What does this fold into?
Amino acid sequence: MTPAGIPPAAADTFPRLLLHHAQVRGGRTAIREKDLGIWLSWSWQQVADEVRATACGLAALGFKRGMTLAIIGDNRPRLYWSMMAAQALGGIPVPLYQDAVAGEMKFVLENAGIVFAVVEDQEQADKLLEVRSHCPLLQHIVFDNGRGMRNYTAAGVLAFDQLMARGREFDAAHPGFFAAEVAAGKVGDTSVMLYTSGTTGSPKGVCHTHGSLIAAASGDIAFDGFTADDEILSYLPMAWVGDHVFSYTQALVAGFCVNCPESSETVMTDLREIGPTYYFAPPRVFENLLTQVMIRMEDAAPFKRRVFHHFMAVAKRCGGAIMDGRAGSVAFGDRVQYALGNLLVYGPLLNVLGMSRIRVAYTGGAAIGPDLFEFYRSLGINLKQLYGQTETAAYVCKHPNGQVKLDTVGKPLPGVQIRIAANGEVQVLTPSMMKEYYQRPDATAESISPDGWFLTGDAGYFDADGHIKIIDRAKDVGRLTDGTLFAPAYIENKLKFFPQIKEAVAFGHDRDTCTAFINIDLDSVGNWAERRGIAYAGYTDLAQKEAVYEVIRDCVEQVNRDLAADPKLGNSQVRRFLILHKELDADDGELTRTRKVRRGFIAERYAQLVDALYSIASHCEIEAQVKFEDGRTGTIRADVRICDVAARTGVPMGRAA
It folds into this structure.
């Protein structure tokens, strides 16, 4: 073993990595799951035994090399084991987003040719049974949690315990089968198929090999020094490349422990109980955590509030320098105050957040506000930005330790080359490159250049320190009619840096000015309203309050000041905005399952509101259909106000964390 914990070259597929860990650290904990309030643990040897039984059970049902296996549900040990079992047999696991509705799953089931599916519970089984008549290849549905499944008699529906019982019988009758199947695997075999979010069209199946994913995991492990002693909380969707890299591939390469929370509602409690050393969250999670902290402080006693704000000001002043090992550049008085703040504020706060033991934390997938970034780093959390795509196994750029810059995504990772095309597009050559888009040679050819570079579609540039700065999707960067550069995602992310704003959609290409739709954050703005005695009946009512518009106008004006200081973007300030009458929702097609805005769809669906923004109207009546969780549809009607904002000049002003 190398110091970084990377296994020998012979362990070059995930099943062989599993067997390697079972041999060298068989008694150490590989995975935990919280069930009914109790943490259950499995050692590496136990996981290897469970995977063997699962693989043999699938083989007994007819699963063969090259077949695909759908995996649907929250992060559960048996779902991860099913992934390993499929790979052991030379099959291809295809994780699906567990919150997708049946119709969305139907596309992937048909496109990937799914015959076998392993699901978490009754909810997911029902979705598959609903679309089964349209997916004739789907024959076997294996469920983990049997609650509510007692009277299910549909053909091919099987409990996971029954699958494993068959597997043990099959293994006893064919003792050399499992080892032979694992030995037959090749490093260039497709190990997983991860579907893109489908922001601009139908999702595409991204095929990664064992080799590409192990290269990404090995590079990450060496870059930040992960070892078998690390622990991670696995709570993000299994269908997302981030979870697959952090909670699956890196765990199997480094041999560290993966912890599965009881439910999405208990993640914060479970985070505190586990105290992971390694953590990843998209910006919205860090934003929500900070919003909750600030809401609690607003409700605290005046003395506690004063103490909190005093020491947070100290942390903002010198915490980053101390985090980066530059304590010598910090005044003695500030070092003393920071130490006291660590005792009274930072330490207890990190403990409440479950982040006391974190050595490295990442964020990515979207821009994160500078103030938010500074807040966590000032507390002593080594928070860093990463950049990558599903097609590159999220392995392109990261911030090196001590070289964190708030407005970049870091430097190219080991083995990665980056070039900037003439149109500003970032292009990547990486050992973690996907093999292909499944059955889409046309899309593969469009995304990978003839000389092997992946075309990210993102516009960016190198700064003076060799860091990459991403400004927007290359295809989304446009121009106002006066020629001013218009980068919608850049503006949207600046708006979302404010805790009061949950989502934003900017418009302006080929227009005279920039305008925006705003979604307020119901928790943050609702708490603000309640403390001021402002009554409201729900989101739609709160969103149209005059006082709320004034709060959002202040946020927009601050963004305009920031934009005014940028010579390239100064004229793309937001001149009019409205607060949408409903929250943008993936179930309504307005967001992807990874919560990316589908800007084109929104512009078409709410064309009436877009037209109103570019008129002299001060309001617009709108009616929209919404889809409820149970599949029913309803209608929301509202008279949406439109607010004008003056253009700004001058330098950007800081925002309080």
In short: The domain at 477-644 is CATH 3.30.300.30 (GMP Synthetase; Chain A, domain 3). Confidence is low (pLDDT under 50) at residues 651-657.
